[in-house]
Prior knowledge:
Elements: H1 6-25, H2 27-30, E1 33-36, E2 41-43, H3 44-60, E3 65-67, E4 71-72, E5 80-88, H4 90-94, E6 101-108, E7 111-119, E8 124-129, E9 134-137, E10 140-141, E11 154-157, H5 167-177, E12 182-184, H6 189-197, E13 203-210, H7 211-223, E14 227-231, E15 238-244
Parallel strand pairs: 3-5, 11-12, 11-13
Antiparallel strand pairs: 1-2, 3-4, 5-6, 6-7, 7-8, 8-9, 9-10, 13-15, 14-15
Amino acid sequence: MSEDHSKEISIAIKAATEAGxxxxxxxxxxxxxxxxxxxxxxxQADISSENLIKEIINNDSNFQMLAxxxxxxxxxxxxxxWVIDPLDGTANYNRDIPICCVSIGMVTDLKPVFGVxxxxxxxELYVGDCSKxxxxxxxxxxxxxxxxxxxxxxxxxxxxxxxxxxxxxxQKLISDMQIWKKTRMIGSAAMASCYIAxxxxxxxxxxxxYLWDIIAGAAIVESAGGSAExxxxxxxxxxxxxxxxxxxKD
Length: 250
């Protein structure tokens, strides 16, 4: 794949915006549980949005896909492939909390190439191109914040549905929160990434999140001058992440 990703970025923008508008317009029919367990929610919206995204991408791209609902499009995804989250923040969407989005990215050797995130509630389109180091919000350049100290900054975190809720684990989380000026839990890893990239917060960190939740956001954070650390990658594509403005270290 060439260094110019403009064709694929255009495809991702089209897919993300069309899926987001579809999710908004058809919410009454899409906001139906397809499955649920103790801590996770799956809606018809997730499935329908993913089908629409895959159809748009398949029309113009030969790269394989890793998608949240359907998994791998091929046993061998190859070196470079799409990573799709058709609705990040499903529980928020389900309960009319307006923090959710469509997230589409591409990786090479599991490293972010570019990312597109469409916050359809606010009609805000975030795009990050790692090769050009440019991140935009509705075509306007965005940058991470200049805050250097945790006691002046905001950390965004979350509790994935399979989180370790033991007292010891939660106490460690609380101890870390106490260092920061403010802590936020917003229910969408992709939107958390956008908040770091656009200077609304200084760090997003979470354990056991999935690659499709964070890869587009990682590209946008890096393109906006921040740092996107992805580590402890498991076979099921679960990862641990620390995204920051690169001025505050974890």
